[in-house]
Amino acid sequence: MTRPTITERSGAAHARIWGVGGYRPERVVTNDEVCQWIDSSDEWIRSRSGIEERRWAREDESVIDMSCAAAEDALTKAGVGADQLGAVIVANVTHPFQTPSAAAAVAHRIGATPAAAFDLSAACAGYCHGIGLANDMVRGGTAEFVLVIGVEKLSDFTDKHDRGTAFIFGDGAGAAVVGPSDFPGIGPTVWGSKGEDWDVIRNKYSWVDLRDHAHVGSLEEQSPRDAMPWSYLTMAGQSVFRWAVYAMAPVCREALDAAGITAGDLDAFIPHQANIRIVDALVKQLKLPEHVPVADDIRHQGNTSSASIPLATDRMLTEGQAPHGGLALQIGFGAGLVYAAQVVVLP
Ligand code: UT7
Questions:
Q1: Residue 3 is assigned to a structural domain of this protein
Q2: Which residues does the annotated region (ACP-binding) include (predicted)?
């Protein structure tokens, strides 16, 4: 049998992040406010997690709304038009529809149609998975520019009365535009999974009073009951903490080695903002020199899962803690369990 040879596409020699943007909801929720619902204290929350306050989205503010705001900020900073995007990836675990994706709506709203659009479920590692994919897409020729968004509305899926999670999660969105480059701007992605611990962070379904979820009004109309099943996140905090502390430092080292640099070459370390004690433990294990600034956005934002790394990056660049054009090591880790890390050149 003779068959014609398939034509392949090839893309840019290299890819880099052109711009990073963010969206932080207006409402600040203090530790004292959280302590109205759980038996805890401002002092305990600060010392055990580093969180001083977090932000929660409005009831009528969706994952799609927050994504569009972060996307527009990132596109403006990158100087790239939405019509130049070949793909929109929305990493999240809190878009309340299994289908359709948040990404298709975001692409439409920002004017990126007919860009490819899909959601990515890798929890707190979602953004770093997205950056790895975008790098491969730009270099492989499947898209010239890719928009990677990390977004969460965790307040919708957090049980306000659960002492193990109520204080930790926050809402927000961060975005990055990845495009062609004449120098290597995104190092090799080191990623993986540990599915044997699949259930240490997961959804738990309970019956909730619809009056606590007035924003699901359309569902209320369809239901004759005043209660409906709702999903909350549960977390075996200590197990996740231990895994993050002992297993993520080697992943960081692998990402540095793969990029051919050392910890001393870094201009920023931007780990997932899960708990400041995890960040501190990683810094110690990596023997990170003191001159390398370390992201601490968790203090004001809480743990925003897939949004945490782009939001922390945006803050470090905006506040001048990290230099434009500098080298940053970023690592995401969370439910799955899954992780992804890479060295990037900051836009
Ligand atoms: O983003 C995805 C990945 N997620 C993470 O990486 C989160 C990782 N886990 C953590 O960050 C931490 O496990 C938490 C911040 C969630 C909890 O901190 P911890 O130091 O692991 O607390 P613990 O569960 O070991 O509890 C220590 C003590 C216990 O009291 P006793 O038994 O020592 O008397 C708890 O009852 O703290 C108590 N405690 C609390 N006290 C005040 C637990 N939760 C609270 C609370 N307020 N909210």
A1: no
A2: 273-277
Residue-wise pLDDT for 41-50, tens only, equals: 999 999 999 9
Return the best residue to mutate from 47, 54, 234, 238 for the ligand 1 pocket (most ligand atoms within 8 A of CB).
Answer: 238
User: Any catalytic annotation for residue 272?
Assistant: yes
51 token code pair:
């969180």
DSSP assignment of 223-288: -SSSEEEEEEEEE-HHHHHHHHHHHHHHHHHHHHHHHT--GGG-SEEEE--S-HHHHHHHHHHTT-
Ligand 1: does its nearest atom lie under 6 Å from the Cβ of 241?
Answer: yes
pLDDT, tens digit, for every residue of 72-111? Answer: 999 999 999 999 999 999 999 999 888 999 999 999 999 9
Residue 74 is part of which domain span? 11-347
User: For residue 339, which amino acid is it?
Assistant: Y
Which CATH number do you get for residue 199?
Answer: 3.40.47.10
CA distance 205 to 255: 37
Query: Are the CB atoms for 215 and 63 separated by under 8 Å?
Result: no
Ligand 1 touching residue 37 (CB < 6 A): no
Asked if the structure places residue 6 within a domain, the reply is no
**Residues 6 or more apart whose Cβ sits within 8 Å of residue 4:** none
Closest atom of ligand 1 relative to the 272 alpha carbon: 1
Q: How far is CA 81 from CA 111, 140, 144, 247, 277, in A?
A: 9, 21, 12, 39, 39
Q: Which of 124, 128, 129, 275 is catalytic?
A: 124
In the chain, the number of structural domains is 1
Instruction: Tell me the pTM.
Output: 0.94
Contact 193, 338 (CB under 8 A): yes
Distances (CA, A) of 69 to 11, 72, 108, 154: 29, 5, 13, 17
327 Cα to the center of ligand 1, angstroms: 33
CA distance linking residue 310 with residue 148, whole number of Å: 9
* Within-domain flag for 38: yes
Is 2 among the domain residues?
no
